[in-house]
């Protein structure tokens, strides 16, 4: 039977450094979200955030976001919500979504680092952040519907 070996301190350090270099998004669950609009379906690969800590961090410090990527904030129940762009490096569109998947309002091209409050116009359960200007490019509007495993 082979004897158990320990990792050398140098190898252990290398393994630890590699683990820390993996982007958090690579470790997160990513799922498919689809927006049905008047001009067709638009699919996004989204990371879902549903804890106070992950919602507070959001897309802060992210330097690039693919055109078909986003982050879905799940607040677990409908309520008034408000966002800001502190420590956010890229422009974002914020789609405010009710519990049944209806987009209630959209804030287009939120300005990086702006600490001005961006509120929902009514109670919502979800907020989808996608690259700035993308909702206009795709013709996504308030009243369109969103499907995702989390949305009823």
Break the fold down into its secondary structure elements and pairings:
Layout: H1 9-21, H2 24-27, E1 30-37, E2 40-49, H3 52-57, E3 69-79, E4 82-83, E5 92-97, E6 103-110, E7 118-119, E8 124-131, H4 134-138, E9 145-147
Parallel strand pairs: 2-3
Antiparallel strand pairs: 1-2, 1-9, 3-8, 4-7, 5-6, 5-8
What would you say about this model in short?
InterPro entries: DUF192 (IPR003795), Saro_0823-like_sf (IPR038695). This protein is α+β, with helices and mostly antiparallel strands and 152 residues long.
Output the keywords.
152 residues, Jelly Rolls, seven-stranded mixed beta sheet, globular, alpha+beta, two-stranded antiparallel ribbon
CATH level-four homologous superfamily name: Protein of unknown function DUF192
Q: What percentage of the residues does DSSP assign to strands (E)?
A: 35-45%
**SSE sequence, one letter per element:** HHEEHEEEEEEHE
User: Radius of gyration, Cα only, in angstroms?
Assistant: 19 Å
- Largest beta-sheet characterization: 7 strands, mixed
Mean pLDDT: 87
- Category by helix and strand content: alpha+beta
What general form does the structure show? globular
Low-confidence stretches: 1-8, 10-27
Query: What's the architecture in CATH terms?
Result: Sandwich
Tally the structural domains. 1
Sheet with most strands: strand arrangement: 6-5-8-3-2-1-9
Percentage of residues assigned to helices: 10-25%
Number of strands: 9
Distance between the termini: 54 Å
CATH class: Mainly Beta
């Amino acid at each position: 039977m082979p004897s158990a070996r320990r990792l050398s301190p140098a190898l252990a350090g290398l393994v630890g450094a590699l683990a820390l270099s993996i982007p958090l998004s690579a470790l997160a669950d990513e799922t498919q979200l689809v927006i049905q609009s008047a001009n067709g379906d638009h699919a996004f690969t989204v990371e879902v955030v549903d804890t106070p800590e992950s919602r507070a961090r959001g897309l802060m410090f992210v330097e690039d976001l693919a055109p078909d990527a986003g982050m879905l904030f799940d607040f677990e129940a409908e309520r008034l919500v408000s966002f800001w762009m502190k420590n956010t490096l890229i422009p974002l569109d914020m789609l405010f979504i009710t519990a049944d998947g209806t987009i209630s309002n959209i804030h287009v091209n939120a300005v990086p680092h702006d600490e001005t409050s961006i509120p929902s116009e009514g109670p919502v359960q979800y907020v989808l952040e996608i690259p700035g200007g993308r909702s206009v490019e795709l013709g996504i509007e308030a009243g369109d519907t969103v499907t995702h495993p989390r949305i009823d």
